[in-house]
Each structure stands twice: as structure tokens, then as C-alpha cells.
Please model this.
Amino acid sequence: MRTLPLLVLSALAAACAFRMKTDEMGPAATGELREQVKGDEILRQYSLGREGKADVFKYFKKAVDPADKNKTIEVLKRKELDLNGDGRIDLWVSYDDAGAVVEQKMDLDFDGKVDVIDHFEKNVVVRKEVFHTFTEKPDEWKFYEKGKLARVERALHHPKADYWEYWEGDHIDRIGEDSDGDGQVDKWTRVKKDE
Ligand SMILES: [Ca+2]
Ligand SMILES: [Ca+2]
Model:
């Protein structure tokens, strides 16, 4: 997943540009291609502009309007994007009933496998799981407090975390390492602020 940062950046920029266009221009100008209704779920497909190919998929759920029980509203539950137009989804976003982002999964190098999963609370990221290897398990976890990085855990030499970084502000305060893989820190290293 470390191989194609430029491609990823341009793809994400394209996704952001699309969002801006959608918000600014309203539903009539968003390139909506088709709509499918299945029970109380509605799938709307859009195009980022690549020859009219569908690459944005939004899943809505019909729900009772909390403001008026006689009315039905549509709630966006899931959004899926094919950022590089290869027919495979690369970005999955899920939302709660209030419209806040709950989880975002990304395939950054477009190989069909998820590389990062972001978890949110009240639209703010609280945890990231990173998949550096080709196994199905993450090997790095990042924890955030009030949107700021507080702790990084890595499984460097063992199946579970054996390396811990504690962040204070914008620098690492201390590092813990587990040498025998029992999940307990064996060695602490203090990191001076100017290092
Ligand atoms: Ca793709
Ligand atoms: Ca990938």
C-alpha cells in the first residue's frame, strides 16, 4: 500500500471535487445515472465523469421523518466509490441514522484489498486500522483523542501489538516494546521533545 501515493492523492482529490460539485449544483447536475429501489433501500448511481460509467453508489434507506411522523425521508446509509474507474470499489463510507460517518474503508493502491479502516465518533476519527501486509489482519492501529493522534500500536514481530508509541501534542513522548510477544511492554524509551 505504500507504492502509489500520487495516484491516491489525485483520486481522492477527484472524489472531493465531485462532492463539492454535488453540493454546489444540486441533484439535477450531479450526473445521476440510475435509481434502483429494493424494499426500503434505494441505490442511486452516479458518474465522476468517465464516459458516463457509474463509479459512485449511494445507498439510502427510507425512514419515518422524526419531525413529521406522516412523512417519509431518505437517509444515506452507505456510499461506495470506484476512484480509478477500474470497476472495483476503492472507498466505502457508512453512516449512522443521523448522517454522521461511522466507518470509512479505503483501498489505497487499488488492488482490491482494504489498506486502511477509519472509525469515527460524531464525525471525528477515533481509530485507524492499517493493513501493511497482505494478510487479512491489520498490523498497525492509531488512536486519536479529540482528533489528535494519541497512540500508535504496531505488530512488528508478533501477531499482536508489540510496539507502542505515546504521542503528546505533535511529538512522541515514549515508546514501549514487547520483546517476547506476551503483549506486555519489556522496555520503555523516553523520547526527548527535540529529538
Ligand atoms: Ca477501483
Ligand atoms: Ca489495497
About this structure: Residues 1-9, 13-29 have pLDDT under 50 and may be disordered. Residues 5-101 form one domain.
